[in-house]
Structure formats: C-alpha cells, structure tokens
Design goal:
- The chain contains 17 helices and no strands.
- The chain has two domains: about 400 residues, Growth Hormone, Chain: A, CATH 1.20.1250.20; about 50 residues.
- Helices cover about 80% and strands about 0% of the residues.
- It is mostly helical and about 450 residues long.
- Helix 2 packs antiparallel against helix 5.
Length: about 450
C-alpha cells in the first residue's frame, strides 16, 4: 500500500520541490503585502486627501478579510481540493493587486484590498497544507521551516522594501511588484504541480457555522484594531462571546466548518495557543523599533530598515535548520527553547534608552531572529503533524488565524499603552520621553506574555 502511494506523481521528489517553491513564494508575498502597505499610508493619504479613519481601513480590511475567510476556505479546500483553491487564490490576489495599483479613489482601494485579503486567505490556508500532504513526516519539518521562514521574511521585510519602493517609485509600486510573482506562481502551479488533495470530498459545507464564525471574528479583530476605545472593548467582548457560541454550534453538527474537537488534541491545542501568544508578543517589535530608531535615534526610514533587517535574516537561516531538527527530535521541545530565547530578547529590549547603541539593538534582533526561527517551524510542524490528512486545510487555516489574531492583539497592546501615556496627539520632540516610556512598557508586557507562552509550549509535552 505504501509503495503504491509513493509512486503517485504528486508524491515524487520533483513534485515536492515544485510544491515547496510555489507555496514558499506565495507565503512571502501575502504577509509582505500586509506589512509593506503600512509604510505607504502617509503617501496614500496625501494623494487622496483622506482622513485618518479611512486610511486606517487600508491595512485593517486586508487582515480582516484574510482572517474571516481563512477557516471557511480551509474547509472548502478539504472538500474540493487544495490545489484548486490555491490556484484560484493566486488568481484573485494577483488581479486584486493590479486593481489596487490603479485604484482611482480611496474607497475603491479599500474594496480592492478586501478582495486581496480574500485571495490571501485562499493562498495561506492551502500552501502549508499542500506541503504537509506531499512531504513524508520525516522530511516535513525541513520543508515547513523553509515555508515559515518565508512568512516571517515577508512580514519583516515589508516595511523595509515598502519604504524603498514608496520613496523612489510611489506607493502603487508596492502592489505592482507582487504581480509578476503572482503570475510566476500561477504558471508553476498550473503547469508543473501534479495531483490534487481533497480528503473530505463529498461532505457538506457548513454555511451557518461559517456565517457565525465570520461575524464573531470581524467583531474580535476590528475591536482589537480600535482599542482602547469603548467601542473596541465592546466589540472584543462580543467577539469572544461569538467565538464561544460558534464552538458550541460546531459541536452539534455532523460536518462542521471547523472541527472544534481538534483542540482536545493536546499537541494541536497547546501548539495553537503557543502560536497565538508568540505572534501577540512579537509582531509589534518592528513597529516599536521603527518608531524608536526614527524618532528617538533620528534615523531615516531607510537606515532604520537596514538595522531591522537583522532579525529576518537570522530567522531565514534558522527556520529550515530548526524544521529539520524537529523531524528528528521533539518539535515541542525545540519550539519551547525558541520561545524562551524570544523571551530573553524581548527582556533586553525593555532597557532601551536615549543612549542605547546600535550594536546592542542589532545583537538583540539577532537573538530574536534565532528565537523566532527555533519556535515557528517546529511549532507549525507539531500542529500539522498532530491531525489527520482530512484536517490539513483546517489545521493550516488555524495557523494563519492564530497569526492574524496575534498580529492584531500585539498592535492593540501597543496602541493601548500609547493612548495612556501619549494620547491621541502627533509625536513631536516634546513627546519623545513619553514615547520611550511607552515603548519600554510594551516590551515589558510582551516579555511577560512570551514568558507565559513558554509554559503553554511545554504543556503539550
């Protein structure tokens, strides 16, 4: 039986490489688009004369759409085929990028960003699942490590490359540069990637559960984005209640959009929690250090970006190695070590001050990159390896959803502290002491959160 399976075209070595290439390329430009656009917000505001509320929707709707559609498309992919949904996702994402690049108004740009977020959801819930499907368990960690490195490089390099593109070619160039990549991935997928993966073919799709989930997640994530306002608090509470109602509803039906019982699996449950905590504790680091380096230390955006690039470079090197180690040793143990190293790096960022040297910051970022590399790919390997094939799409969607919710929670923590210590005012030299205090406090909270994450990571063992 196993010999027959290994002879299938979709399981041969060349097809594995193609799957890894297309999934890794796609895993770069979807998070890249999420983070790169932030640096271009002022330029977009100037061109369209848009107010801050409208501008805030440009990054928010992308994350919202991606999070809302991740789980439903994860389930759809399990039913109708991973490759099919991945291909449609690339098409939608590429078309939406072109439309964003030529958007004549802020309102159309926001609409096209929603479309881009939907395509992004279809890509990231299937790319990881395809890799998991084509690679045998003993080689899976290495492949996932390369894929995860691509995700973090996209997130971390977004502000750097986005700043360069915006400065020299205008904000529309951010959308234009991903179009050739999208077309290349589409061509490789359609012409070279063999096979299809649909372990739940013939099962029904849970429309009611999808609607409940989508509404609850919209309230939760949008609530995070407008914290600490009263409406933000109310929406977060309603979102949590909605998620609980969704979980109860899913337990009562035959073919749920999300198999909630997966969380009874200790490895799946605690690995997902560890991922949520890790992203919540680390996503705001680039944002905070960008403010610190440009305002407190007086660097240009390009110079600040060159310092910040230390972390993704180290992580790009570490993730595949950590993934390979997780094929041979306990993924949970390696991920826990990574969480501990990440905690140490965040702890040292608490002590930033006016006279902190650039060498100190670079060394801390190198340690952070090492910690994230050791954590991410083994943790993802643990999640994907803990479920049956029929749940690969949902497991992949869970990884993506934990990332998106963690990102919003991380920024919510930062904005909450800024609101308390600085207020809703423009950052000027007289506010720099309050800005530095806010940054230190956020890093303290992130350190505590990441320290708790060590125990969540260890609990699965």
């Amino acid at each position: 039986m196993s010999t027959e399976k290994s002879c299938k075209p979709e399981n041969d070595i060349s097809n594995r490489y193609i799957a890894l290439i297309v999934a890794t390329m796609a895993s770069f430009f979807t998070p890249f688009m999420a983070s790169a656009i932030n640096i271009a917000i002022p330029s977009i505001g100037s061109e369209f004369a848009a107010d801050v509320i409208l501008l805030s929707w440009i990054p928010t709707v992308y994350l919202l759409a991606a999070a809302v559609f991740a789980v439903p498309f994860g389930r759809i992919a399990d039913i109708y085929g991973m490759k099919k949904i991945f291909t449609y996702g690339i098409i939608i994402f590429t078309i939406a990028s072109f439309l964003c690049a030529i958007a004549p108004s802020i309102y159309l740009l926001i609409i096209f960003r929603v479309l881009q977020g939907i395509g992004s959801a279809m890509i990231f819930v299937t790319g990881l699942a395809i890799i998991t499907s084509v690679y045998p368990p003993k080689e899976r960690g290495k492949a996932i490590g390369i894929n995860i490195a691509s995700v973090y490089i996209g997130l971390s390099m977004g502000p750097v490359l986005g700043g360069i593109l915006t400065q020299y070619f205008g904000w529309r160039s951010i959308f234009i540069v991903v179009i050739p990549l999208g077309l290349l991935v589409l061509a490789l997928t359609m012409l070279k990637l063999k096979g299809e993966w649909a372990e739940c073919g013939g099962e029904n799709f849970d429309i009611s559960g999808s609607i409940i989930y989508s509404i609850a997640l919209v309230m939760l994530i949008y609530g995070f984005s407008i914290l600490p306002g009263e409406l933000g608090i109310i929406l977060v509470i309603l979102g949590v209640i909605g998620i609980l109602a969704f979980a109860l509803f899913e337990l009562r039906i035959k073919n749920p959009v999300f198999e909630v019982r997966l969380f009874k699996n200790i490895t799946f449950g605690f690995s997902s929690l560890a991922a949520l905590i890790n992203y919540s504790a680390t996503f705001a680091v680039v944002f905070l250090l960008s403010l610190y380096l440009q305002y407190i230390k007086g660097l240009s955006p390009q110079s600040a970006g060159l310092i910040l690039v230390a972390q993704p470079v180290v992580m790009a090197v570490t993730s595949p190695i950590a993934g390979r180690l997780s094929d041979k040793f306990s993924p949970g143990l390696i991920a826990s070590i990574g969480m501990a190293v990440t905690t140490v790096s965040l702890f040292f960022l608490i002590f930033l001050n006016n006279s902190t040297s650039f060498e100190y910051i670079i060394i801390v970022l190198i340690v952070l990159g090492l910690g994230l590399g050791l954590f991410s790919s083994p943790n993802t390997n643990a999640i994907m390896g803990s479920v049956e094939k029929k749940f690969y799409g949902i497991a992949s969607a869970t990884v993506g959803t934990m990332r998106l919710i963690g990102q919003m929670l991380s920024m919510g923590i930062a904005l909450l502290i800024f609101s308390v210590y600085i207020g809703n005012v423009q950052i000027v030299p007289s506010n720099y002491p309050a800005l530095l205090t806010s940054i230190q406090i956020v890093f303290l909270l992130c350190t505590i959160l990441c320290f708790i994450g060590i125990f969540a990571s260890l609990a699965r063992r």
